[in-house]
Here is the input.
Amino acid sequence: MALRQVFEGILHEPEVFSKDEGFEFRFETFQDLKTSLVRIFGTAGRAILYDAGIEPGRRSCRRIMAVARTKEEVLRLLVVKKNRQNWGDLVIDEMDLKTKSGRISMSNCFEAREADSRGPSCDFIRGYLGGFLSEFFGEEKVMMREESCKADGASKCTFVFGIV
Ligand SMILES: [Zn+2]
Here is the structure.
C-alpha cells in the first residue's frame, strides 16, 4: 500500500479502539483520578500526571511519523486524531521550526472538562504535548507551559513551548 493510502486510511478510520487497544473513560472519572492524586500527593500528584503524559505523547508521535511524509502531515494527523478521540480541538497557533518554539491551543480540552481550578490545570495534556513535540523535533525535552486554562475560566487552554 502506498504511503499516501496509509495516510488517507488513518484520516478516515473511526477513532474507536478495538477491545485489545483501549477503553472509554468519562471526563468525571479522569477528574476523580486527578483529585485523588492531588489529595494524596499534593503538587507532586500534578507532577505525576505531567510525567505520565510524556511517554504517550512520544509514542503517538512515533506512530504518526511512521506514516506521515512531512512535518506538516504529522501535525495535521495529530490534530485530526485528537479531535476524533474527543480529547479536544487542537490548533497549532504558532510554530517556529528553527527555534522549536510556539503556541498551541485546545478548545474543550478533556482535562479541563468537569474541572474547576485556580490557574492552569491540564498537567497530563501538557506532558503529552511536550512528549509529542520532543519526538517531533528530535529533542531531549520540549518545555510546555500552560498559559491559560478553560478550567480557570479562559475560553480555551493555551500552551506555549520551547527548548530550554
Ligand atoms: Zn487547561
Summary: Residues 43-65 form the longest helix (23 residues). The mean pLDDT is 91. The chain has one domain: 26-163.
